[in-house]
Amino acid sequence: MDKDNLKKRVNQPGMIPLIHNYCDRWCERCPFTSRCSVFAMEEENPTPSGAKDIDNQAFWNRICENLLDAFDMVREMARENGVDVDAPISEEEEERSEAARRNAKNNELVKSAEKYMDLVENWFDSAVDMFREKQEELEMKARIELPGSDPEAEAVDLNDIIEIIEWYHTLIPPKIYRAVFQEPLVLPDDEYFQSDADGSAKVALISIDRSIAAWMRMREHLPEKQDEILDILIQLDRLRKSLEKAFPKARAFKRPGFDD
Predict the structure, then answer these.
(1) What is the pLDDT of residue 1?
(2) Which of 43, 44, 147, 188 is 20–30 Å from 217 (CA)?
(3) Closest by alpha carbon to 48, among 59, 39, 63?
(4) Residue 215's closest CA among 197, 195, 236?
């Protein structure tokens, strides 16, 4: 897609500006895809067969093409607003940016989110046999038509839980990283001003809320794993409380479209 088509999509009537900046990237479950310019561009340029394979050169070519178009559009918009995007970055600015990246990477909130991500991945790695046994149990219930049970509904619910946990466990760390990276910026003293840091923190908080709810449901399906799941829930709850303390205005952030 060239930059003219990209600009056309962004400015198309009915689109919600910047909605994609504060979403969870789960397009299949989003009620606003028809009003998202990023989703519209993806639909207009569907991913070729095999392009999601990171070893497929077509995938990287497509990513590069889309980024170049986006950069061109940003540069054009900057020039229209009198911003010289080609001005050299000073050594002081470069050092400040690098320091911000280091601080964000070493931030305790980011480390805690990464610890949660590792906990989830290790838990699922160790639960392969357990899930196989659970599948066999549900298949057995279906065969004998055990009274008072609904193995099909149970399987659907369990699959939904797994999808939620797996989706959000990798989203939480980068959203928190983005929040803490932006947080040191000096912000206007305006009660109506919304910072990008708070917006990113809110997406992380929503992801944590949904993950906690999913793990609570997981405990109901797997009572034998309650202690292990409780450890994960404690980690998540501590992360949630710490994030709320660090970004007290995050919950009140109005995400375009979602919170209107």
Answers:
(1) 46
(2) 147
(3) 59
(4) 236
